[in-house]
Design goal:
531 residues; alpha/beta; FAD/NAD(P)-binding domain; 40% helix; binds flavin-adenine dinucleotide
Length: 531
Amino acid sequence: MSENKHRTVIVGGGMAGLTAAVYLARAGHDVLLLEKNKECGGLLTSFQREGFTFDAGARSILNAGIIHPMLRELGIELDFLESPVSIGIENEIINLSPETALDDYKRLLEKIYPESVNDIDKITSKIDTIVKDMEIMYRIDNPNFREEKDGAYLKELLGWLPKFLLVLRRMGRQNEPVESYLEKLTSNQSLIDIIAQHFFKKTPTSFALGYFYSYTDYIYPRGSTGKLPKAIAEKIIEFGGNIQTETEVIEVNPSEKIVKDKDGNTYSYDTLIWSADLKTLYRILNTKDLEEKVTRKILEQKELLLSRRGCDSVFSLFLGVDMPLETFSSISNGHFFFTPSKQGLGEVHWSELDSLIENFETKSKEEILQWLDKYCQLTTYEISIPALRDPTLAPEGKTGVEISMLFEYDLVKKVEEANWYEEFRSEIETRMLDTLSNSIYPGLKDKVIFQTSATPLSVAKIAGTSEGAIVGWSYLSPVPVVHELRKMPSSVKTPIPSVYQAGQWAYSPAGVPTAILTGWNAAKNAMKTKK
Ligand SMILES: Cc1cc2nc3c(=O)[nH]c(=O)nc-3n(C[C@H](O)[C@H](O)[C@H](O)COP(=O)(O)OP(=O)(O)OC[C@H]3O[C@@H](n4cnc5c(N)ncnc54)[C@H](O)[C@@H]3O)c2cc1C
C-alpha cells in the first residue's frame, strides 16, 4: 500500500473536477486529481476512428459568459469555431442565427401547424421573454471568472447587476415542467410534444425554453470538444498540480481523511472535492468513527439521494460515411435538431414506455421492437457533424456523423438482464439509420463505412454516472440538491466533514456551465478552509 500526502484531493476529472483543480493549482495549493479513466473529460470527450474525430459527450459547448473569460484568466489559448444550430421538422429546416432565431422558429411551427397559429404566437412570445432574460444573464463575462476587473468592466458590471437580480427572481418563479406549462398555452398535443421532446422529461420551463438562447451561444473548440478538458488538464500540470488517471476511488473515509483506490492505494487529504456521481460517494462512504450527529445527517442525505434517479440518458450512433461534407452542409448546419415526424412522441415515451418497463417480463421481443419502431420514427434526433465546424475532423470527401436520441436507461438494463443487449443495440442502430435514410439523408445507410454506438449502459459505465444520466438528476421527482441559481454557491456543501461536492450532481439543472461553476465554487471553499 502506498501512502501519498496531498492537501486537496479531487475525485473525478470531468469539467467540474478539472475546474476545481486548475483554480487550486493556480493558487499554489497541493492538488491531486484522481480520475478513473485513461483520460480526463468525463462527459466532455472525443475519440478518433479511421481518420474521423467524434465527440462522445456534449456536441458543442455553451459559452454562457464563462468559457472565454475563464480561459483568458487561466492563460489557456484555445481556438474556438462557431457552432451554428439548425432545427428541422419533417421537410422544413431552419438555420438559426442570433438575430432571427425565434422569428424563424415561429414561422417553422406556423407552417407545420397552421391550425395553431394563435397558440404558436403565445408560445413564442413566452420564449422571447425567457430568451431576453438569458441574454441578460450571459451578456457579460461572468464576474467569477474576471478577477481583474478594470474600469470599463466594473462599469458594465454595475449596470448589469440590478437587471441580473431581477432575472434571478423571474427565473426562480418558472420551475414548472415545460410540458404542463405548454398545456396552458395550447391543446395541440403534437405541438407540445414537438417543442418539449427536445428536452429531458419535465425540464423546468425557464431552462427548456431558454435553450433558444443557448442554441445561438454554442462554440466549438478547433480539433473537437475534447480539446477543452485536455487544455485545462495541461494547465493543471503547468501550475504544479498532479493528475493521476486510471485510478478509481472505491472508499472515502472522512474520519481518517483518506480515500482508497481499486488497487488498495490510499491518498490523504485535508479537503476532498467529490466531482463524480453523488450516489457513488454515499455508497462508498465509510462513516466509521464519525460523531453520531454527523453520521445521522450523512445517513439522511444518503437515503434522500439513493431514493432519486438520474436524468434521461442517450443512445448515440457514430458513423463514418462515404459522402462528402457538401451533401450535409446543403441540408443543415453542423449541429442539427431533427424530428422526422410532426406527430410527436405522445404516450410512446410516457405510459407506453412505463408499461413496457414495468411489465417487461410479460412482453415479447416483438412487442418491444414494435415500440422501438414508433420511438425511432417519432423522436427528435440531435445530429452533429464535427467536420462542418472543423473540416480536418474527417478524411477528404468523407463525413463523420453523430446521431443521438434521448433513451431510457431502465429499458436497456432490462434487455441486458434478459440477455439480448447486443441484439437490441443493433436493432436500435438499424432503426435510427432507416429513419434518417427515409427522411433527411436519402441513401445514408448504403454509404456507411463503419458504425459504432453508445447506449445508456455505456454512458453509465464510462463516466460512472447513475442511470446513465447525462446532466445529473431527473426532474421527474423533486431534485435532491440545490436548484435555485441564487443559492448555487451553497450547492457544493455536504454534511461530510471536509468534503465538498461539485459537478452535474451538485446542482440542477446541470450541464457544462454548472459543472464549471460548481467546480469553481468548491475550489474557493477549499481555499478558504485551508486558510
Ligand atoms: C451526448 C451528450 C450531450 C450533451 N449535451 C450537452 C449540452 O448541449 N450542453 C451542456 O451543457 N451539457 C451537455 N451534456 C452534459 C455535460 O457534458 C455534462 O453535464 C458535464 O460534462 C458533466 O461534467 P461533470 O464534471 O459534472 O461530470 P462528468 O463529466 O461525469 O465527470 C465525472 C468524472 O468522474 C470520473 N469518475 C466517476 N467515478 C469515479 C471514481 N469512483 N473514481 C475516480 N473517478 C471517477 C468519471 O470517469 C468522469 O471523468 C451532454 C452530455 C452528453 C453525454
